[in-house]
Amino acid sequence: MLTDDTKEAIRAAYTRLKEGLPGFRARASQGKMIAEVAKALAEAGGAAVIEAPTGTGKSMAYLIAGVEVARAQKKKLLIATATVALQEQLVQRDIPLYLKLLGIESKVALAKGRGRYLCPRNLLMAANSVNDSGQMGLAGFDADLALWSKPPQERDKQALSKLRTAYDDGSWNGDIDTAPQPVSDFIRPMITTSAGGCTGRRCGQFMVCPFFAARRAVADAEIIVANQDLVLADLTMPREEDGFGGVILPKPDDTLYIFDEGHHVPAKAIDRGAADVHLQIAVRQLSRLGRQIHAAYSLADKEVIGKLSLDAGDEKLQALSDALEELEKDIRLAWLPSPDDDEPMYRGSLGQLPESWVAHAGMLSLLTGEVQRWIGAVRRTILEMTEGGPTHEAISRELGMALERIERQARTWGAWSSDDREGSPPLARWVTMSVDQQLICHASSVSAGGLLRSILWDNASAVVMTSATLSAGGNFRGFADAVGLPNDAVTLSLPSPFDLAAQARLEVPALRSLPDAREEHTQEITDWLADNLDWDAGNLVLFTSRVKLDRVLQKLPIEYVRKVRAQGSLGKAQLVAEHIADIEAGKGSTLFGLASFGEGLDLPGKLCETVVITQLPFAVPTDPVGATYAEWLESRGRNPFIEVTVPEATRLLTQYCGRLIRTETDRGRIVLLDRRVVVKRYGERMLRALPPFERVIERV
After folding, report:
1. Can you identify the CATH homologous superfamily of domain 4-106+222-271+449-493?
2. pLDDT at 235 over 80
């Protein structure tokens, strides 16, 4: 529990902060947050969910409480965020400032996933595999092991050269996010690696590897900042001795966790368990894998590996390939998508698939397991060889990545052929068809609650989740279900430190149509923007679909289109930078964006004086994970629209509204062009849940 000494240390830290930060203003919400974070982290198995609106000063609040409790308990403080931007803010600004103000020293480390670090071995191989003529440097059998999927263009070679020079001369530490030039989507897979493609200590570049340097820094650190994906990945990794977690990051029972941007956690946890198999690609990859295994047997000079001769292994690969093709035939016979479907999908109602598909999946699960064990044995044999060269390195990498692909297949077929747990939501199981008519099989959990209970809440020393939007107007039921929150956890919604009633106005104009009348609603949005938006100011217009955004752009008068910066036309950072430059130069600029522009965009003052929300952000009804969960709730006599859809849309709507008021001096208006908040029964509930802006609801 929280001792008197720790309470005194927290009070002293807060005093130093008040005295040392220029322009600091005491805020009741921040003080309350410090107290609740401290209480939760100090209690064994403590759990708290705290909604802290913009302006609360939540990062300093959880640092004051978290650092002092961690020091008192001699535990690690791990801060998990959803975005690179917040990680960099914490590591480069907030944490150093806090430690400086308090006059204390503490080792701080930034932990990212392996894919965010350069693989020096792959950089060398990528650069060396291109000869002066720009053709592939590897030929014949070795070409099957090459990094490049196609000959690189001149700009790719130049980019590689710059990255290699910067890394070799020490001006770049190998962090992909701080690369001396942007790393293209084509080059990135060439110069990074996955866990399967990494040979660890056996790699000749191990001692200089940026990823392992970062891991060593994490092991020594007292404060760790990591992305949520990495934290969830670590928590789901089995330890050699017992339990889960503590493989990449510190052990959960030695760690105090703070999840900032916590509203992302449920979706990220669901994604951790999702799996899919592109049937035709899987068959082609097995053919390539066979050639790589032949090379491995030749390199090892062995007739039998993993109790299988090469011929016997080939037969297993062929059996797996045949079984994949048999499943594909069965699916195509049973399912004929409508030609009108833009994105054809077959979803099993309540997660249940046709019996013959389940039987195929059961056989595929067995065959995949056998192949998985064999490939693992072959790779271990290659890794244990004392002498190696480029081909040895390439085969090790390729077999490791093949194991990852096979493991994803194994999870998919295991999910398709297993029974759902009684009383728990079923797995979502579905098939999609790509634009080139190829079939992809999918499986996913529909709720992260059970997983998070076992790997996080029941496993960690203490956990706090925080964000500007976690509840629906103070009601945490939806979020609590989504993350499996313990019954005794603290939930707290803090009031905004801003005078929102005086600073912002929420308007609902008198549109005649609702969004389901697509063309009429699109036209009314266009007319309202043309007639009522101040095009000489800074504005943000948010859409729920790319189609509607594009249609409005097509319909707007050209003089207004020239002042629009639409998401997708350039990178987000460049669009925002150009928007800021125009506003500061006294010109008008309006950003058109989708959901990602409704969160994390910080445009204070004149940079954003009007936020237009064109439509309530309800989840896409065709989402197979959400649809399966909704079916399960309905089967138990519950109302998924009221329990899940409306609260989540309310949370997102609150998030979108939060783009307007970023400081105490901001002023502006939020315009909602969706009359469902007025004419639908659930709309009144959504309006009540929004912050206390002045409201102007026009009569039709």
Report:
1. P-loop containing nucleotide triphosphate hydrolases (3.40.50.300)
2. yes
